[in-house]
Structures
1.
Amino acid sequence: MSADALHCQKKTLALIIDGGNDYIVTIKKNQLSLFLAAQKVVESQRASDSNQTSENLHGRSTTRITTIYAISSELLPLWAGAKHIIVIERTGSRWSGKKSRRRLVKFHEQHYYLSSLDWSASKLAEAIRGHWLIENRLHWVKDVTLNEDNCIHRGGNAPANWAMVRQFLVSIARMMGTNTLPQALRFMANQLGNVSELLFDLSNRDKPVKSFM
């Protein structure tokens, strides 16, 4: 299981381990003692493995250095299964500002993670990046395309019900094999018969499930 800092809780990680699973969770200052302990490990210990990758995409350049530090069970006894502190350092350039005034700016970020896995730095880096790619895609679709943050429905069960409706739309769009959500919404608005066929006759569907921004 990979999760953000919201789930970096002792009880949550204990339940994951008790269930026979493993975890990778983000460490942030909402768990200050853990955050400071992670920093101390990085400053005082030698890394057990590291991995570096670089990419250039749409004018942006990013270099990611993933470093892992093995820790003993005695170091963080209250954090069930903790075996590694992971540090991911990202540097490069990315677009900033509104579309008409966009410019490339330099950035440097460092993030800490806690994990119960005995994986290599390259495998951990791949798992962490995969998690955030999924998160970013889903949040972008809901927040930007479906304007979820500005939803006018408030109180009672309305927010939860409309959240389920939006997720249902996203799921149908991906099943349809469209490249973007706006394209799927236009198709659903004008081709209700095909949408009904998709919903009630899935056995004949041969289109791949899409994952889009």
2.
Amino acid sequence: MNNYQYYFMIQQFTLFSDFFMHAVFSHSRKAVQLLARILTGKADLIVVEWGLEVKKGFPFFRNDRYDLFLIDQYGNVYNIEIENTLRTLGKRAFHNMCLLGSQGLKPGEEHKELRENWVIFLTKKDFLNQNEPFYTYEWFNRKWKRILHTKAHIRFVNGEYRGDDAMGKLMHDFHCTNPDDMFYDELREAVSYFKKEPKGVNAMCEIMREFERESRNKERESIMRNLRKEGMSYEKIARITNQSLSKVKSFFKTQQTA
């Protein structure tokens, strides 16, 4: 696929498009800060650190990669996920929160020093079909109607919401293919860089090329593993996959030591 074809694909992307969203929010602290402020309702939130595709977990247990991970000026921690499906969101949100909370205190710190932990899933579809801008979950005792103050917040944001407020405008912008139609300057500027400016468009094309290369490599590796399971020799696998024998042997040697 050439740059001309990539360019027309890029013009169709929205902020719900996975690696386009990653590129935009990796590029712009202002866009990340705007997003975090609106999703949490914290108008004074300042992003001190942030990263995309941040890996969290422990040895011998499942690790997860967070779409967006950030820390504010008070040390509060936020995981924001951009979701196109609604599958197992409750369990995923709980697991993400457990990972955040378990790493919230340094050795010697008291429990009272635990910062706020936020897990936010911005879903393309309405999570509860109630047309609310978002749905927040806290630890709550049903009988005594009391909230357990854990400083842990799970929120599902409705990507279909279109109210005449900050959240409605943000959701509108997330669905825009044309940055000129966006309400927020921070998002318009960041998205325009990758859709209109030559340097940004070229960077996006390279990201897409790399994605294609990785996809082809994963497909080839899967074929190699399946052929080996069928008892095929390294020599035959090399011929079928159009690779050198040394590369095939090196791949399986790596698999054995992984």
3.
Amino acid sequence: MIVLHRHDDGARSVRVVELRRDGGRLYFDGQVLYTHVDSNGDNCLDYITAMEQALGAAENVLLLGTAGGALATRIARRGGQVTAIDDWAPAFEIARRWFHLPEAVECVHADAVTYLLSTTRQWDAVAIDVFRGPKIPAAILVSGIGDLLANVLAPGGLIVWNVADAPLSWSTQWIARALRRSGFDVVLISVLDGDVGNTLVVGRRAAAAKD
């Protein structure tokens, strides 16, 4: 592997490396792999592919958490509009320089919850991929997160939330309950890579009851 870029500012310790065998690039935060793309910038991670599939044909997507921007790139390349939020500003420069993030992706430096509280915009879908190392930070697991997400969704919109854990883990079940309390129908999608994997918590607003 060839180290292309290092950024260590006390908040994050990020390395971008290139694989000699095929030109693929990887984004590591500490020892945790966040992004892997091929030499054309196409995603190589199963959970990102599963998130894209779960989002379906959503044309306007809010992405919370960016890293190398593989999901944002996939959505933009199929013609979707993406607003990417990250509380670590260098992530956007790294994603554009090393991971082919298109200029069309709108990048906003902000805390995810603060942004949800302040925006009046709405999207067809919200994709959430927010981590500190392998863990979802407690700052986003706040009471009322389901309502905040519902407020930024257009009618019929959906949530796709990535959890780096099993379906029965505490974090997966907490997120599923939070979305259900806010009126979402929830499905859990397990994405396995060998014996380990991720779980996608997919929520769509329940249809209004008919009189």
4.
Amino acid sequence: MRHIMILALACSPALASASQSAELQQQIRTADTQLFQYAFQNCNPDKAAAMTTEDMEFFHDKDGKSASNREDFRQSLIRFCEGARQNGVALRRELVDASLQVYPIQDDRALELGEHRFHETGSDGVERWVGQGRFVQVWRRMDGAWKLERVVSYDHGAADPQSR
């Protein structure tokens, strides 16, 4: 019995850490989903930008540094959504669940790595998988809410079911 008690005490920090990691991963997944829903499905640049830090930065392999702050990000989303409307398409970004990795960073930040897919629905009502990419994001907890601070979005390409 004594050995079981010692083992339980020795494992409790690891169990607490695993529980905290699962909780952190769910918090970041939720924030990620919400931000991209505002940015893509809802095309609401104001709400998406409100989920970023004032000094957020966005780096994209095809576009270079596309935002140096929250307002730059908001303006890029305005242009992005206007382009989608002009082309008559609805957009959706899908987080590839199996690819998601989240790591705590000591000062109320979290590192998120993963893959995402991009979908468009045209005037025919059919949704098509049109592209994919990978990303690294740094989130910062501010006043109890997760805000996107840094984004590196890379390895973008056409939809390719064989590649992932």
